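Hey, can you fold this one?
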Amino acid sequence: MATSKVTVHFPCPVDRVWRIVTNLSHTTWRSDLKQVEMLDEAHFIEHTKSGYATNFTITACEPSRLWAFSMENSNMSGSWEGIFEASESGTRLHCTETVNAKHWWMRPFVPSYLKRQQKRYLDDLRREVLHPS
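Sure. Predicted structure:
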């Protein structure tokens, strides 16, 4: 199992960051996604541009404070938690992602994959916060 924790700052109100992150009907800012399929209020599927699907279940939702979910696909299972915190100069977002590879041979690659995925997501989010699409 691999865990990645990162804290980032955005120069805007916490409500704005919250709306962008949790609005699953507007995900064009995500460079890795083709679409998000909403199944119900607690379940959705992300489809990557390469056609890979990951199932998500929202496990916690406290508006403008906490959003968390479990995730699973054929290669991994895990969880993500975002803690949103207002700061003097904007918003701090604390992200914790934990992933468990389902295949033993993938385990050595999971930490670097996780860091790369988190960086891409947060770079996309920063672009959307600063220059909305």
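The first strand starts at residue 2 and ends at 10. Let me know if you want another pass with a different chain boundary.
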